[in-house]
Amino acid sequence: MTEIFDGPFDVDYGHVHLVTGELFVDDFGGAFAGQSNGLCGAQQNGVLALITGLHTGRTPIRISLLEHAPELGDWEEIVEASLAPATPDAVLRGVTGIQECAFALPEASYRVRWSVSGMDEEQSQRDAGPATARQWLALWPAPPAADAILRQTSTTAASWHGQVSTAASPGEGALNDPEPLSAAARANLEMQARGAC
Fold it and tell me: What CATH number does residue 9 fall under?
């Protein structure tokens, strides 16, 4: 096992992105279209759109490169998807690019597991007090496979999963924050994210 990152990470609007090469998440709704899970969007080649427990601020995130699938553990929310990196160069970044964690992914096809706990507590607190949510992104070599929800316990995760089920195709029914941004704010956020890449 290789620990890539383990510490507080700056998140914006409940999102972080793992990107490879020169790619970026250019269609947030499209990243989830056709999936069953609404926490780890993997429908755009070479990138992952990840939903965090915390809306905005610093929250604990761990990234591990493994040889095989880990045990489920005590995580409240667990989803899986597949990732085919565009290049070995990978970066985890917040939507506005305030913080970045760059690392190398050996060339392979990966299964990714995004595990989150404390989503409902964070949604009720928003930005008040220390982060109560925690997140773990585990990656291991595996052939591509359909995404899956392995565990879902919170109403916040259920809301994200429910939004995915209504997004029939890229550009249709794009996912919204449980407290939606205005169209102008979302456009500004997407423009900032493009500039940060």
Answer: 2.60.34.30
Distances (CA, A) of 180 to 24, 107, 185: 22, 37, 10
- Would you call 101 helix, strand, or coil by DSSP? strand
pLDDT tens by residue, 61-111: 999 999 999 999 999 999 999 999 999 999 999 887 778 899 999 888 999
Structure tokens at 180: 């939606």
The count of structural domains within the chain is: 1
Q: Around 111, how many Cα atoms within 13 Å sit in the side-chain half-sphere?
A: 18
Q: Are strands 15-20 and 47-51 parallel, antiparallel or unpaired?
A: antiparallel
Residues 6+ apart with CB under 8 A from 53: 14, 59, 116, 117, 118, 119, 121, 122, 123, 131, 132, 133, 134, 135, 156
Which residue carries 């169209």 as its tokens?
183
pLDDT below 70 — which residues of the chain?
124-131, 165-197
Contact yes or no for 32/149 (Cβ under 8 A): no
Residues spanned by the domain of 115? 2-196
Tell which phi-psi region holds residue 178, choosing left (phi > 0), alpha (psi between -120 and 50) or beta.
alpha
